[in-house]
């Protein structure tokens, strides 16, 4: 079994693969930063779900402070983790100005979309930031767009106003809210939906591929999927990218 960890700004997302199948899924909060606790939590998850069957460990992170946490988890498990980043040879051409600046999660999403969903494609990942990643007909990573995620916008609104509360992100039945909470929820949900639709439209126009597949992933993807007809929801896309990256590196060795 392979342990794959996507270490993001909000959560460590843990996946255990048996072959190509995601057999177990878990999460450990990134905040507050508690390195030893988080390392032990990752190791405990792997021991509980895989035990002696664990044969590999792969991770990627967009948070440099989490790297030692994952290396420590590897030591607890007796594994030498493979770290995946923009410089890892994956057979994916990054057709951008500074390839080293592309987040590891975006590279992994692009790899998994290419291998599992087909080309051309646009991946929309609803994480702490909402990212758009575009793949050409030839499988080149073209770049994309980055927006603050809906939860981040909700936190910012509450932090920088005197009387507006922080709200959960939920679909509302109407745009015209009837109280403060509903007004904020309506603005965030329908406003983000409008941004997503416009960025997608402009991305497809610039790519000149109106037929491109649209793939949704990340924690809030289910809330928007039903409003984006034709889009495919793949909840474990980044973890699948980690699995594919690990297989490529092991095969090369």
Tell me about this structure:
There is one protein chain. The chain has two domains: 2-83, Nucleotidyltransferase, domain 5 (2-Layer Sandwich); 99-240, Nucleotidyltransferase, domain 5. The chain starts with a strand and ends with a helix. It is built from seven helices and ten strands. Helix 6 links the parallel strand 9 (213-217) and strand 10. The strands form two sheets. Strands 3-2-1-4-5 form a five-stranded mixed β-sheet, with helices on both faces. Strands 8-7-6-9-10 form a five-stranded mixed β-sheet, with helices on both faces. The longest helix has 28 residues, at 180-207. 39% of the residues lie in helices and 23% in strands. The model has no long low-confidence stretch (mean pLDDT 95). The protein is an alpha/beta fold.
């Amino acid at each position: 079994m392979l342990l794959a960890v996507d270490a993001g700004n909000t959560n460590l997302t843990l996946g255990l693969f048996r072959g190509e199948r995601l057999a177990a899924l878990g999460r450990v909060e990134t905040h507050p930063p508690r390195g030893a606790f988080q390392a032990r939590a990752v190791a405990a998850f792997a021991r509980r779900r895989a035990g002696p069957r664990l044969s590999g460990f792969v991770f990627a992170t967009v948070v440099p402070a989490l790297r030692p946490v994952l290396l420590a988890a590897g030591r607890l498990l007796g594994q030498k983790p493979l770290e995946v980043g923009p410089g890892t040879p994956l057979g994916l051409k990054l057709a951008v100005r500074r390839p080293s600046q592309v987040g590891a999660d975006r590279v992994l999403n692009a790899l998994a979309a290419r291998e599992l969903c087909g080309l051309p494609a646009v991946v929309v990942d609803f994480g702490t930031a909402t990212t758009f990643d575009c793949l050409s007909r030839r499988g080149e990573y073209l770049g994309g767009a980055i927006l603050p995620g809906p939860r981040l916008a909700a936190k910012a609104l509450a932090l920088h106003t005197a009387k507006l509360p922080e709200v959960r992100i939920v679909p509302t039945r109407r745009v015209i809210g009837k109280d403060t909470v509903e007004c904020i929820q309506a603005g965030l949900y329908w406003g983000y939906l409008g941004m997503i639709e416009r960025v997608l439209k402009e991305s497809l126009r610039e790519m000149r591929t109106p037929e491109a597949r649209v793939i949704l992933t990340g924690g809030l993807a289910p809330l928007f999927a039903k409003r984006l007809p034709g889009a495919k929801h793949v909840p474990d896309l980044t973890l699948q990218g980690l699995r594919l990256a690990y297989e490529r590196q092991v095969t090369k060795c």
